[in-house]
Amino acid sequence: MASPLEQFAIQDLTAPLFTIGGHHIAVTNSAVFMMGAVVLSSGLLLAGAGKGAMIPGRIQAMSELFYEFIANMIRDNVGSGGKKFFPFIFTLFIFTLFGNILGMLPYGYTFTSQIAVTFFMAMVVFLGVTLIGLFKHGLHFFSLFFPHGAPLFTAPILIPIELVSYLSRPISLSVRLFANMTVGHVLLKVLAGFVVALGIFGVVPLVVLVAITALELLVALLQAYIFTILCCIYLNDALHLH
Amino acid sequence: MPVQALRTSVAAAALIGLPFAAQAAGMPQFDLTRFPTQIFWLVVCFAVLYFLMAKAVLPKIGATIESREHKIQADLDAAQKANDAARAAGVEQEKALAEARGQASGLIREASEAAAAQTSAKLHEISDRLGAEIVAAEKRIGEQRTQTLAGLGSMSTEIATAVLGKLVGSADPAQVARVVDEAAKAGKP
Question: Residues 22-81, chain B: which have Cβ within 8 Å of A?
Fold first, then answer.
């Protein structure tokens, strides 16, 4: 039986197209699903935005649901000044969501189960948010590392703690998404292996497999939501400090 | 939920054992040589999606939602206005009705007062006339009575004179008259 980790391998589907900094870039299975997520999500949303009817149809209602969902998330978690980042947060959510969901299709590939992808997104968010905070507040931004109103003598303890917790944000953000997606797919693969191996008694793991598939769908939605809302919270910290 | 528990334990095991497992099992995710390709495609795809969302999708959906909210607000305002107008008309109507009712009751009162005055005037007149008639009748009766009484005296004198003439042969009518007068006066209570 193939290793349950094999499904995560990145495979070149074409010959290298070009080279960047000594790295050959080819269309990979991961890239295909990224493009699929872009095409599918933008197609759906463009169709939903297209008519702009007073009384929305199904696709338009769904698009507006996404829009209002993220708009409310930003309003509740970022507040003033968050509107500028709406397109970015929205794209982040849609991209992650479609990546997670497309991975649930048979023969699908989950590009969000790649630490390279999640860590890069998390780093972009982390660095962007830090720069926004520095531009907005200057050196005052560093008051983020010392809770307002704490006694001064606690500074030697609190500042390193806050600093470490701040610096570990991109790691926790990226590992949360990557680990959740990876574990889910490993679990599905292992259970699917049992179904085949147990013959007629494979019905038992099959039932569990169905239940876990439903759970993984929930996780796919939930992790996209968590990833996005944490970015909103980090952005809020940078914009408004504590 | 056993499924949830199973998943959590696998997740925990995976997270704890991640660095070792990655080395041992050769997790494809930690193959650094495959990072640049993924990051390249991520940047490209994300940029395309961002561009599409920011330029095409979001402004349009936002405009649609906003125009719908405006429309709903306008409709609500119009409904409120119509409601206010209806209420004002109702008040106006109520006022007109009250005025008309007041006017009508005034007229009724006036009419009934006039009728009452007329009736009482007529009653007065009738009772006056009746009173006068009664007084006149009483006066006539009194006169007749006096006349009758006066007639009675002379008749008694005549009868007494005639009786005396039969009995005694002759009688002085003047004397008889005086006696009868006296007797009548004495007989009167």
Answer: 25-31, 34-42, 45-46, 48-50, 52-54, 56-58, 60-65, 67-68, 71
Could you tell me if residue B63 is inside a domain?
yes
Question: pLDDT for A99-144, tens place per residue?
Answer: 999 999 988 999 999 999 999 999 999 999 999 999 999 888 888 8
Domain ranges of chain A: 6-240
ipTM for the complex shown: 0.93
CB contact under 8 A, A38 and B28: no
Range of the domain at B91: 43-180
What is the total count of domains within chain B? Answer: 1
SS3 labels along chain A: CCCCCHHHCCCECCCCCEEECCEEECCEHHHHHHHHHHHHHHHHHHHHHHCCCCCCCHHHHHHHHHHHHHHHHHHHHCCCCCHHHHHHHHHHHHHHHHHHHHCCCCCCCCHHHCHHHHHHHHHHHHHHHHHHHHHHHHHHHHHHHCCCCCCHHHHHHHHHHHHHHHHCHHHHHHHHHHHHHHHHHHHHHHHHHHHHHCHHHHHHHHHHHHHHHHHHHHHHHHHHHHHHHHHHHHHHHHHHCC
- Whether the pTM exceeds 0.90: the reply is no
- Please name the member of A37, A115, A183 whose beta carbon is closest to the beta carbon of B10: A183
- Give tens-digit pLDDT for A3-57: 888 889 888 898 888 888 888 899 999 999 999 999 999 999 999 998 888 889 9
